[in-house]
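User: My collaborator sent over this chain with a note saying "see what the structure looks like." That's all I know about it. Can you take a look?
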Amino acid sequence: MLLHVPDVLTPAQVAQARAALDATQWVDGRVTAGAQSARAKDNMQIPEDHPVAREWGDHILGALQQNALFMSAALPLKVFPPLFNRYSGGQSFGTHVDNAIRQVTGTPHRVRTDLSATLFLANPDEYDGGELCMEDTYGVHDVKLPAGHLILYPATSLHHVKPVTRGARVASFFWIQSMIRGDAERTLLFDLDTAIQQLSAGNPDHPVAVQLTGVYHNLLRRWADA
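Assistant: Without extra context I'll predict from the sequence alone. Here is the result:
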């Protein structure tokens, strides 16, 4: 499932985040890359333990908890603390797949990367290039969203970031361990939940809505790791 989640952060929050991030010292992005992806990665990042990264990571996590679309689609069990990257001056990230397991720095905690997420913090007119490109059985999908919007996609996908030839592409990226390991089952639950919400909006007490809600929770009970 490839899903656009709009308005995770408000324009005011994006402006505040950018002011804080732009004033912070950035380092070589290879510090968080695995052996394979390090050869393809050319960008800058804010260190994971930097106070600004932690502060704005917490803001993003708080916003996600309040975002019904994200919660319905991801069914998150664990979320890796958000990281922040920047591409400029021709920087790019070649085709790669994300590590299956991510260790949270400084802790014993691990996150299985079922889903990847990129939250854009620069508007498309601020830079040229920089599209996030995901490959699946339907081809290659280029994504370049407004600031404050998020793209959610399976972490199993091969993906890359095209070179940024003007301006700077700034984003937050992170991974989600879902209660539902499989993408097919997770997509089915999301489609069912969406249909229930649409039906309930017009007639919340409709017996079919109640019955479908029961089906949803019984499937969730069958498939979930919680």
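A starting point for your reply to your collaborator: The chain has a mean pLDDT of 94.
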